[in-house]
Specification:
single chain, 748 residues, Jelly Rolls, 4 domains, 7-stranded antiparallel beta sheet, 5-stranded mixed beta sheet, 54 strands, 41% strand, globular
Length: 748
């Protein structure tokens, strides 16, 4: 017999009675709820479904899964223990905000033939137990519990009752987060799902947004500035300025704008400030002069130079370096800005290309996140023996600075997400140092200056923070002249604080996306099922057929959006403009909206609006040409699903597991170790039982059935107790135990 499936929308919940099936059925009925009205606007909303059965207490649905914009609730035998009518409440939470609530009625028919009630799954039973504990904590009274000895005895029977269920599979979920970390994984059992987010990659070069040429405060257009070498000095253009290294063998003129009347720009009348704040040497200056007669307009050395033009001037600009000047990676920051003061350097433009993904790398490790894959070697008098557990035994006297790196090649380094970690391995005597080496994804070298907290463990362990994703390995170093007598290093990088060494246990899974998916700029991938959902795409704004110029708002251009673009709230990513909002920019806010892009979804397929006052004089056709190569990543109106053939079986390690991906945050559903699960739940339940109220006078109204603690004992309220009334055993309360209440709950 096939499944009984009911399809409905959120609005249907209030109108229809949901038929859950007959008492005793198991996984025969599925309720599929279309939640697109929520997920379209709040794609990260978390659904929570609470069920109130015909008899018993409310509990969270254990078999609720999200499939695209649908929620699928599979009815298990624990949901249909008793016949009659019940209720469900479906809430959607975004952060701390409840954004939608829907309530419905359920119906369960009695079974014609049954041999007894089906037992509730262990997770449901424990959930109900915790609800009772929470009720006890919320209504606790009398005196603060001095110790938990009696409560430990009360719950010991509960613990032993479940010892025999060690092989039962309990499924838990964790994430999404950059690295998902769990402590209760079952040994050697496959994860149910490993879902990784796929996010577009864009380097903003340290700024908060991209901007087009002329869109920033820097008015100095670098028409002729290039990376080159002149008279012994090498100039390299970077987002933070021009990096210069070398010793000038002659006076150097490094041109920013050549003296060329056909290409040189103009400065309009006004007051400006010229500066090159990256250099503080008197041997380096920046100069601007008139094209016509080479009359010097301004010169700035170690301090800014402010000047005023009363008429428009066409100018050229260069940096001059005197002969013999030595530059050691000096960063030159040529800038002209309006006004009489200098501010931090910004490049003339900040174009930030966007890249997508053709595959994903997913890593699962134990506590130790980074492997030691190097081979044993002797270097500068010191022998490094790499042991089978990843530790390294060091012996010898260093004839020079001696070292061993954790990997033979850079390609073997471990990819880590941005975040905070703990490094250990250096002995307290500091006969050698263990530190991290590697690179951020933008190419920056990891060292004490680029890693918050530092990169060296000096003997007490090191907590450090990676500001962006990076590839990392260890380096063990013995300084020249130091003798090490067979000391073993245990290098370890882990989350949280330092713990005992654990050999690296890990595996990285390389997943290729299907060729028909092309480059993926956004979506999700379930590595276990092989389901790839693509929900974003990239378009070249120059490919839009028509661009129009707003005749009433200078610098405003618009175009009908691509038909596949989702016409709802959702942030887009652009390589040249900052994303603003989903509104048409008004004439009054053009200044604050300059160099932004927005989507106005109310007309037809929606309209893309760009405000770029520097291009106000362009025609619509010229603007279209200027948009060639400008990328926009947007949400698809209809996500596209692909099925990968290379599904992965990722098994959990016993206890601690860490899982992450290079494409974005990760969420997992995994089999929990039953004993760890029960111990954790019992411990959390036990912590809820601390009494709050002092004395034997009620500080609030207690209803029949409430729980409170008097002295070291647990009591159940048998008659209503008014605030200020006396609590009397035998009159309005009766003594009970946690075990009795949990047993009563289980048998309810």
């Amino acid at each position: 017999m096939g499944k009984r499936i009911q399809n409905l929308t959120l609005k249907d919940l209030a109108k229809k009675t949901l038929y859950l099936g007959y008492v005793g059925e198991n996984i025969h009925t599925q309720i599929i709820i279309d939640c697109s009205e929520v997920f379209w606007d709040y794609p990260d909303a978390v659904p929570r479904l609470n069920v109130t059965p015909p008899r018993g207490d409310r509990y969270p649905a254990s078999q609720l899964v999200k499939d695209g914009d649908n929620l699928i609730w599979t009815i298990t035998n624990s949901d249909i223990i008793y016949s009659g009518s019940g209720r469900i409440q479906l809430r959607f939470v975004d952060g701390n905000e409840v954004i939608k609530t829907a309530v419905g009625t359920t119906k369960i028919d009695g079974s014609i033939e049954t041999t007894g009630d089906a037992p509730a799954p262990l997770e449901d039973w424990m959930d109900r137990a915790e609800e009772t504990a929470e009720q006890i904590a919320e209504t606790a009274a009398a005196t603060v519990l001095e110790n938990y000895d009696e409560l430990v005895d009360d719950v010991s029977s509960l613990k032993s009752a479940f010892e025999q269920l060690h092989d039962n599979v309990i499924t838990e979920s964790a994430g999404p987060s950059p690295i998902v970390s769990i402590a209760d994984g079952a040994d050697g059992m496959p994860m149910r799902s490993v879902e990784v987010a796929i996010e577009p990659v864009q380097d903003l070069h340290g700024y908060d947004a991209p901007w087009p040429a002329g869109g920033g405060k820097n008015l100095l257009k670098p028409v002729d500035m290039v990376s080159t070498t002149i008279s012994g000095v090498t100039f390299t253009i970077q987002p933070d300025g021009v990096h210069a290294s070398g010793t000038a063998t002659a006076g150097i003129y490094y041109n920013i704008i050549n003296r060329n009347a056909s290409t040189a720009p103009f400065l309009q009348p006004g007051t400006y400030t010229l500066h090159n704040t990256g250099s503080q040497s008197a041997g380096i200056d920046i100069r601007i002069a008139e094209i016509a007669d080479q009359t010097l307009i301004a010169t700035a050395k170690t301090t800014p130079s402010t000047f005023t033009l009363t008429e428009s001037k066409q100018y050229f600009c260069f940096i001059y370096i005197i002969s013999g000047e030595t530059l050691n990676n000096v960063i030159l920051t040529p800038q002209i800005e309006s006004g009489s003061s200098a501010s931090a350097y910004m490049p003339y433009s900040n174009i930030c290309p966007i890249s997508g993904w053709t595959g994903a790398k997913v890593t699962r490790t134990g506590k130790n996140l980074v492997p030691m894959t190097a081979t044993s070697r002797t270097n500068a008098g010191v022998t490094y023996t790499v042991n089978a557990d990843g530790s390294v035994t060091i012996n010898g006297t260093a004839t020079a600075s001696s070292w061993l790196r954790g990997t033979v090649s850079e390609a073997e380094r471990q990819f880590l997400r941005a975040g905070t970690y703990h490094l250990s391995g250096t002995p307290s005597g500091r006969q050698f140092l263990v530190y991290i080496i590697g690179k951020y994804v933008d190419g920056t070298i990891l060292n004490n200056l680029t890693v918050a907290g530092g990169a060296y463990d000096t003997g007490n362990g090191l907590t450090f923070t990676l500001s962006m994703d990076a590839t990392v390995t260890y380096q063990i170093q013995v300084n020249s002249g130091v003798t090490v007598n067979n000391i073993t290093a245990y290098p370890q990088i882990e989350l949280g604080s330092a713990t005992a060494y654990e050999p690296y246990q890990g595996q990285t899974y390389d997943i290729e996306f299907p060729s028909e998916a092309g480059t993926v700029y956004g979506g999700t991938l379930d590595v276990v099922s092989g389901k790839l959902v693509v929900d974003r795409a990239m378009v070249d704004l120059g490919s839009f057929v028509y661009w129009s110029k707003d005749s009433n708002r200078p610098g405003v251009f618009y175009s009908s959006a691509d038909a596949g673009l989702r016409k709802t709230r959702g942030e887009c990513v652009c390589s040249a403009y900052k994303w603003r909002n989903n509104q048409v920019p008004s004439a009054g806010d053009l200044s604050s909206a300059d160099n932004t892009i927005s989507l106005y979804p109310s007309y037809g397929d929606g309209y893309i609006y760009i405000v770029d006052t520097a291009k106000a004089e362009l025609t619509a056709e010229q603007f279209k040409t200027a948009m060639s190569g400008v990328q926009l990543v947007y949400s698809l109106a209809t996500p596209v699903t692909y099925q990968l053939t290379n599904q992965q079986v990722i098994e959990t390690l016993k206890g601690v597991n860490n899982v992450w991906s290079d494409t974005g945050d990760t969420a997992i559903t995994y089999p929990a170790d039953t004993k760890m699960y029960i111990d954790n739940r019992i411990n959390s339940t036990r912590k809820l039982l601390a009494g709050i109220e002092t004395g034997f006078t009620a500080s609030k109204l207690y209803a029949v059935g409430d729980m409170l603690i008097i002295g070291d004992d647990l009591y159940k309220v048998t008659a209503q107790i008014a605030s200020g009334a006396t609590i009397t055993v035998g009159t309005n309360v009766t003594k009970t135990t946690v075990a009795e209440q949990l047993l009563a709950l289980a048998n309810a």
